[in-house]
Design goal:
Length: about 650
């Protein structure tokens, strides 16, 4: 989310809306394409679908780092006070309130106020689906009821926000205002999630009222004026949430209104496979493409798929760091494949990673290719899990890629940035892309300790693993009666050697290439065990524009150099800061020849899984390397200067 300092240029693409329903009887009629549609879709996808995600309600996390992070997040969410979150909604609606607004972006004089309550509702709905914790559902239900009261007090228009409707007058007259449609999107998305995961009919009624208001407001603008509105400020994922609402209700007006928020400045070059993203605000851009992806699913327009696919390939292939994150100072400040100058203290905005994972999930549904799961795994372990402080569950805004910096975090009740909100959601939904299904087969995409309950098949799959601390996972079948099923296990792109499999202790003679699926089709019985070896090795990933600068990974895990300096990281330097201030500390260089194997100068530390130490390579000193998701409370480096660039073919 951009702190207001510059506007985003954009124009709108208005296209005829083609409404089509999928033919009955195909797999697309038996399951929904996204969790937002999974249980209650009125309109099914108008496109072929290769894989369907399971609802969070069907996936339970088992002990491991993701479950631990989720439980920390739950504790923080339960600590939030409903009345403080609702204060400015009530004040703006003319209702009494004795509470005090929260700080940061929720303060009474901050124009983005109200966005957090949308994130809170989404996170609560996701958390309830993930855990079944009745406390978080009760808090969220109470918030929905209070919002309904506020909406009623605003009058019959359906308007609802923590700021007056005059903010939209300022948008439409291109006068300074901080992103009211962005905030509206967060509130609407939270209400949609409450309907989907918590069966809240009241939430659906409130969000439909808001959607009718959005339509009535935007209907006043002709195409040229709407272009100016979109050009002026962020809209978040307005096109996505309205398309989701269409899918739930079948009301065509919602899809037509969604299309009014498509930004042609973003999408037109992408439709011709052209990258004109330099200078654009990243977290304005990505949500609009997620909306395009959702609209493709609802309309079947091929150009929308082309836009989303080219964009994903370009961002992940030419504009992403080794962590899976992207952006510097909230923008793409360079041309594609030019990343060295992007290694900043304010790089890798967390919200961008959150949104890239949402987009990836859509694309995997259309084309069940392992490359999407490879990226998802990389970004989850290295771009999301590292952003939660294990000591207090606080979240990060920026994830500095500049060597020698340190992590900074929100304050629990005085920050409430965009990444606070997406952070609450991130750690509530770790179960949502571990498994997918295509009717007759199960995709195992992520190696996370968990249990899937595939009720339609009458089968449970329990994944027991300490991955990545151990390079393996075990799948255990639970079934009341034998079940025919094709088990599709991802063979990661980083695999070091052969992904070997044993079934009930006997070697299974099958193999698959890296970044593909090993498929085992058979009739499974209760208690069947599938043991999968996932050998890992050290490797470098060099910057495309500076091959003498590289990051070090072990399997999918980014290793960070632990540089110390904890004594200088006082609370006032670490908390309440978007990113670190001050100069980076000096970082060692690695004086190694290009043809020397990594194993010759990076050695495992005995008794410490995933921990390594350089030997005789670091100048002026060697460095201990640990998983980035485990490094907190000290300075670090992810990218390293190598003394000798790689040889280039002539």
């Amino acid at each position: 989310m951009r702190v207001p300092r510059r506007s985003v240029s954009s124009v709108i693409l208005v296209v005829c809306v083609v409404l089509s329903l999928a033919a009955a009887g195909g797999p697309q009629d038996k399951a929904a394409l996204t969790d937002t549609m999974f249980a209650a879709a009125s309109v099914k996808p108008a496109v072929p679908v290769e894989a369907y995600p399971f609802s969070l309600k069907n996936v339970q996390l088992l002990d491991g780092p993701f479950k631990t992070a989720m439980e920390r997040d739950l504790g923080y969410m339960l600590s939030l006070d409903n009345d403080r979150l609702l204060h400015m909604f009530r004040v703006t609606a003319g209702l009494p309130s004795t509470a005090e607004a929260y700080g940061g972006w929720e303060k009474a004089d901050v124009e983005l106020r109200g966005h957090t309550i949308g994130h809170f509702l989404s996170a609560s709905a996701l958390m309830f689906a993930s855990t079944g914790d009745a406390r978080v559902k009760a808090k969220a239900d109470a918030v929905v009821a209070a919002l309904a009261e506020c909406q009623k007090a605003f009058g019959p228009s359906g308007y609802l926000s923590a700021f007056p409707e005059t903010f939209f007058d300022r948008v439409e007259s291109v006068r300074s205002v901080w992103a009211p449609y962005y905030t509206l999107h967060k509130i609407m998305a939270g209400l949609v999630d409450m309907f989907e995961y918590c069966d809240s009919r009241q939430a659906l009624e409130v969000v439909e009222g808001m959607a009718r208001w959005v339509k009535s407001r935007t209907d006043k603008s002709d195409r040229a004026h709407m272009e100016r509105v979109l050009n002026f400020t962020e809209q978040g994922g307005m096109n996505e949430v309205l398309a989701n609402l269409y899918a739930i209700t079948g009301k065509a007006d919602y899809l037509a209104t969604a299309r009014r928020f498509d930004e042609r400045k973003y999408t037109e070059p992408l439709s011709h496979s052209v990258d004109k993203m330099k200078g654009e605000h990243v977290n304005s851009f990505i949500p609009n493409i997620i909306g395009a992806a959702r609209e493709y699913e609802m309309t079947g327009e091929p150009v929308l798929r082309a836009i989303a696919t080219f964009f994903w390939n370009e961002v992940t292939g030419a504009r992403s760091f080794v962590t899976g994150g992207t952006s510097d100072n909230e923008a793409w400040e360079s041309d594609p494949y030019q990343l060295y100058e992007e290694l900043g203290r304010n790089s890798h905005e967390s919200c961008c990673t959150y949104n890239m994972l949402k987009l990836t999930r859509h694309l995997f549904s259309w084309e069940a290719a392992a490359k999407y799961a490879d990226y998802y795994e990389r970004a989850l372990w290295n771009g999301i899990l590292p952003t939660q402080n294990p000591s207090d569950a606080m979240m990060m805004y920026y994830v500095p890629m500049l060597p020698g910096m340190f992590k900074t975090f929100m304050k629990p009740y005085d920050s409430f940035w965009c990444c606070t909100g997406t952070g609450m959601e991130n750690h509530a939904k770790y179960g949502d892309s571990i498994y997918f299904q295509d009717g007759g087969g199960l995709f195992v995409n992520l190696f996370i300790a968990s249990e899937l309950d595939w009720k339609e098949k009458g089968v449970k799959v329990r994944q027991e693993t300490r991955f990545p601390e151990e390079p393996k996972t075990t799948l255990i079948i639970g079934a009341a009666k034998p079940v025919a099923l094709a088990l599709r296990i991802r063979v990661p792109g980083w695999i070091a050697g052969v992904c070997s499999v044993k079934i009930n202790g006997k070697r299974h003679e099958a193999s698959a290439s890296p970044s593909s699926y090993l498929t085992i089709a058979r009739t499974w019985k209760n208690g069947d065990r599938i043991e999968v070896d996932l050998p890992m090795k050290l490797r470098l990933e060099r910057l495309p524009d500076r091959p003498d600068v590289a990051a070090i990974l072990y399997g999918p895990i980014v290793l960070a150099g632990a540089l110390g300096g904890a004594e200088g990281l006082s609370e006032d330097k670490v908390y309440g800061k978007y990113g670190p201030e001050g100069d980076p500390v000096a970082v060692p260089k690695f004086d190694v020849k290009d043809n020397v194997p990594l194993e010759a100068w990076i050695k495992p530390v005995a008794g410490k899984p995933l921990t390594f130490r350089t030997e005789g390579a670091g100048k002026p000193n060697d460095v201990t390397l640990v998983p980035f998701y485990k490094l907190f409370g000290e300075r670090y480096a992810i990218y390293w200067q190598l003394a000798e660039p790689p040889r280039r073919a002539r």
